[in-house]
């Protein structure tokens, strides 16, 4: 595991998303030697808002609370963890994010689906829906 510290706010905001549904999504950024909360999305924001808050040329971690209806017409939600690592981002940062991911994910209990994406097509809403069911 890398020596990346996780800011306490990351865990608090994640608990709020999971337990209270105060947020639709959270975007995390590695700053210095620590994972920080960069942005949170209001409950009424959608997946497009989440995708738009990921920079096109920098790595991020994201958590998205995805609501969906099953074929049996049941309302469900799943918490997605998305490791965003665009091809255009700095190679060193890609390595830092890749080596810190598992340790950071362990800090966030309750993640149900993990997705790795290097461009927006790899995390399209269709892929999210397919992975949720």
TrEMBL record:
Keywords: Actin-binding. Pfam families: Cofilin_ADF (PF00241). One of its GO terms (cellular component) is actin cytoskeleton. GO terms for biological process: actin filament depolymerization. Belongs to the actin-binding proteins ADF family. InterPro entries: ADF-H, ADF-H/Gelsolin-like_dom_sf, ADF/Cofilin. This is ADF-H domain-containing protein. Residues 3-133 form the ADF-H domain. GO terms for molecular function: actin binding. Transmembrane segments: none annotated. The lineage of its organism: Eukaryota, Viridiplantae, Streptophyta, Embryophyta, Tracheophyta. It comes from the Eukaryota.
């Amino acid at each position: 595991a890398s020596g990346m510290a996780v800011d306490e706010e990351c865990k608090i905001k994640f608990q709020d998303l999971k337990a209270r549904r105060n947020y639709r999504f959270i975007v995390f950024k590695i700053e210095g030697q620590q994972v920080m909360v960069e942005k949170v999305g209001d409950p009424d924001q959608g997946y497009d808002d989440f995708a738009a808050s990921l920079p096109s040329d920098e790595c991020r971690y994201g958590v998205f609370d995805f609501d969906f209806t099953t074929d049996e017409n049941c309302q469900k939600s799943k918490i997605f963890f998305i490791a965003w690592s665009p091809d255009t981002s700095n190679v060193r940062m890609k390595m830092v994010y890749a080596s810190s991911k598992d340790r950071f994910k362990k800090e966030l209990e309750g993640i149900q689906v993990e997705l790795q994406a290097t461009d927006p097509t790899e995390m399209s809403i269709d892929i999210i829906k397919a992975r949720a069911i």
